[in-house]
Design brief:
Elements: E1 6-11, H1 31-43, E2 48-51, E3 59-60, E4 63-64, H2 75-83, E5 90-96, H3 102-115, E6 120-125, H4 130-133, H5 144-162, H6 169-176, E7 187-191, E8 196-200, E9 212-215, H7 220-229, E10 232-233, H8 240-251, E11 265-266, E12 269-274, H9 278-292, H10 295-306, H11 334-355, H12 359-367, E13 372-374, H13 376-388, E14 394-398, H14 407-419, H15 433-437
Parallel strand pairs: 1-2, 1-14, 2-5, 5-6, 6-9, 9-10, 10-11, 12-13, 12-14
Antiparallel strand pairs: 3-4, 7-8
Helix pairs in contact: 2-3, 3-5, 5-7, 10-12, 13-14
Pfam family, one: Bac_luciferase
Family: Belongs to the NtaA/SnaA/DszA monooxygenase family.
GO molecular function: monooxygenase activity; oxidoreductase activity, acting on paired donors, with incorporation or reduction of molecular oxygen
């Protein structure tokens, strides 16, 4: 029996995937961009819309990065507005476990889940650097292990809050006309060095019991977090054999925590370029990549790795033959930072020398190497192969334009996936996001 393909639609704009110089590029602020994208994704029967989040405008060398998006609106506000103009597609937002608090965020997500009739999801991410943390009272720095310890505790507390209402609480009180009974809502008490909570949650269970949880980390800690808490992994593993290895590793961890293979979906990010012929698609891919990685973008990338001024270097020339500036030797963590940066640069040099790449071509190779390039039929066949041979459960599709990035994919690839019988013909009426994806939640304690 063929496996069902699941697709998420990634609203572009947080990184250099987006081509802002295209005359059809739209606003990152105007709600019409989000509405168009959401309606188009729903027309393509995508499982959910995926909204990334940036907590601060990017800066480089003391200036606002002029190739970044112009503003970063609040994720939950956008998703709440989209709930009113869509009917079936899931609404997933990226929200940090480092710079939020469990009760507040759980309440906001539960509210969105009710407003959308069970279509809300949370991409739980950790944030480590003081650059973003400067916008918050804590200042932001957490070691890697502490980030995931906080994330795991955050997720566990959120799930306890979401499930703290007895399943029959609302129904019973509606029938009797009585006030909500105190014993219908569990008191959630938790004290640790990270969180101190003594609360009764004030939002009833939602139609899907709790919002969906998506996770994007790839470290051992990230995989453990996904195994224990996530319903979907947003991975970076798109090379076929590498994706199969990742699939086997993560899915193989589920039995130990009492979960089944389909309880956790793996949907890596995937870009695409279509053409009427393979040659045309390859030509378009090169044109789009050059627009995604402009000369100044390539130089900026190197400057951030080397921590040096490379403004005098030719982006079409070779990598700089200089050592990185890793800070004073007396700085805390100097040895580890120095080794990590040197290791990264050594890998960059190896790729550039092996493939004879200029600076710009190297950055294109690293950041704009499109996942699927070919005719619509070839792309549909490739996607189907990944799913049927258990390299993924589907993909998070990333277009290169805002808000028209999915137009071609929806018009030309989706019908071919449907012809194969591995992609839905319609949404199930009234389905929650959890039902659309086919992922089970935790058993409901009554």
């Amino acid at each position: 029996m063929s496996r069902r393909i699941h697709l998420a639609a990634h609203f572009p704009g947080v990184n250099n995937t987006t081509v802002w110089t295209d005359p059809t590029a739209g606003s990152q602020i105007d709600f019409s961009s989000f509405e168009y994208f959401a309606r188009n994704a729903e027309r393509g029967l995508f499982d959910y819309l995926f909204l990334a989040e940036g907590l601060r405008l990017r800066e480089h060398r003391g200036r606002i990065h002029d190739l970044d998006v112009l503003g970063r609106p609040n994720t939950l506000a956008i998703l709440a507005a989209l709930a009113g103009v869509t009917e079936n597609i899931g609404l997933v937002g990226t929200l940090s476990t480092t710079f939020n608090e469990p009760y507040e965020l759980a309440r906001q997500l539960a509210t969105l889940d009710h407003l959308s009739n069970g279509r809300a999801g949370w991409n739980a991410v950790t944030s480590s650097d003081a650059f973003h943390g400067a916008n918050f009272r804590r200042g932001g720095f957490l070691d890697h292990g502490d980030r995931y310890r906080r994330a795991a505790e955050f997720a566990e507390l959120s799930k306890r809050l979401w499930s703290s209402w007895r399943e029959d609480a609302i129904i019973a009180d509606a029938e009797t006309g009585e006030f909500l009974r105190r014993d219908a809502v569990e008191q959630v008490v938790h004290t640790s060095d990270l969180f101190d909570i003594d609360a009764r949650f004030d939002v009833p269970r939602s139609p899907q019991n709790r919002p969906l949880i998506v996770q994007a980390g790839d470290s051992a800690d990230g995989r453990d977090f996904a195994t224990a808490h996530a319903d979907v992994i947003f991975s970076l593993h798109t090379e076929f054999e590498d994706a199969q290895d990742f699939y086997r590793d993560v899915k193989g961890r589920l039995a130990a925590v009492g979960r089944q293979e389909d309880d956790l979906k793996i949907l890596p990010a995937a870009s695409f370029v279509l053409g009427d012929t393979l040659e045309e698609a390859r030509e378009r891919s090169r044109e789009i990549a050059l627009a995604q990685v402009r000369p100044e973008t390539a130089i900026t990338y190197l400057e951030q790795v080397w921590n040096r001024d490379f403004s005098g270097y030719d982006p079409d020339g070779p990598l700089p033959d200089v050592d990185p500036d890793t800070g004073p030797e007396s700085a805390q963590g100097f040895a580890n930072r120095h080794a990590a940066v040197r290791s990264r640069i050594a890998k960059l040099r190896e790729v550039a020398e092996t493939e004879k790449l200029s600076i710009r071509d190297l950055i294109i190779r690293l950041t704009a190497n499109h996942t699927f390039v070919g005719t619509p039929g070839q792309v549909a066949a490739d996607i189907d192969r990944y799913v049927q041979e258990r390299a993924t459960d589907g993909f998070t599709v990333v277009g290169h334009l805002t808000p028209h990035g999915l137009d071609e994919f929806t018009d030309r690839v989706i019908p071919l996936l449907q012809e194969r019988g591995t992609y839905r013909e319609s949404y199930e009426e009234g389905a929650t996001l959890r039902e659309t994806l086919g992922v089970a939640g935790e058993p409901v304690a009554v």
